Amino acid sequence: MNEAIRRFEQERWTAGVVGLGYVGLPLAITVAKAGLGVIGFDVSAQRAAALNEGRSHVEDVDDETLRAALAQGARFTAEPTMLAQADAIFICVPSPLGRNRQPDLSYIEGAAATVASIVRPGQLIVLESTTYPGTTDDILIPAVTGGGLRLDADVFVAFSPERVSPGDGIKTGEIPKVVGGVSPLSTKVAAAAYGRLMADVFPVSSAKAAEMAKLLENTYRAVNIGLINEMAQLSHELDINIWEVVDAASTKPFGFQAFYPGPGVGGHCIPLDPQFLAWRAREANFATRFIDTAEQVNSRMPSYTADRVADALNRAGKPVFGSRILGVGVAYKPNIGDDRESASIQVLDILAARGAHVLVHDPLVDSERLAYETVAIPAELEDIDLVVILTDHDVVDYQALVRLGPPVFDARNALARRGIDAPNVEVL
After folding, report:
1. Separation CA 329–CA 342 (nearest Å)
2. Marked catalytic residue, from 127, 232, 269, 294
3. 378 preceded by cis ω (within 30°)?
4. pTM beyond cutoff 0.70
5. Is 269 a catalytic residue?
């Protein structure tokens, strides 16, 4: 057996986690629970200090869980030289899009430079940040071998896509892990390391295959969301309830997976990840027609939703301009406080630009992050002209909303799905 494989399978080793956000911190907790050493690194000294004091900034990691990891020996730092003590380094930094929808690799490049400054013989370096196929080969290999270390002899390199679903209660260690090394041996070494952390590891033939797998997962969702959003618009024109149609189609026990329409897509994955693939395809002179069409449909949904809200107001004899509109839920998905890339906020921004007086009710999103006045339910609904349900958190008092509130435009079918009968409701 290869010595590196044996060590990661059988000995106690230390993981260095670069980036302590919604991916990196849960991974660090998973490592600690496995009884292994953890050095979490973040460029923010303030964040590292808060974590060392047992204060978590990630919704899926509560303070009690964090304190348990600290008691098991987890350490957090803003000093990159500490990573030299790690046997495996997992890079979990953001990978956003630039202004022109091209991949912004600056965080990955920065992390690679940090690793290059401390890499030593025997280490495994894994990139988890979502990116286009070829990034691990193009950026990580030169970074870790530039100082003279030999791939597969001194150092091992792999890609393993992050898989997290904030707010769903699924722990990082419970999710099957795809692993692809830049060589067959690197794949085996990385799989041995993840085998100590995850319930199930699925090796693939290369880092590129693993990178592609992540993009396929989220492109699949983006395309199907685009399809159902287009079907929702068509159903409205034909006077058909799309929610009823999806429920009916879902009774088929094969060949159909339910996707539901909404005011758009948001968050850190669905709006962004397919664009990594589309950008890489353009580099290869290949047209990604499904991706491009889904992007067009999904990016149009906030405007379409705002138009439907305007129509609902018109039927009540009111213009958008000057109307008081309450947006219920502004997070990008239900039951979390994350509003990154939120389509719900885009809808409200469009209505505000048309002259509406926009207010917000979202018990989970920090009001200091919002540009709009926040209100309570049911205490402050008397002067509201229309309620728009944009993100359907379970903690919202929908019964009070219907009992005391004005007409409702339900972009999530939240009321019907909860069995709430409301006479003055229109759905997307």
Report:
1. 10
2. 269
3. yes
4. yes
5. yes
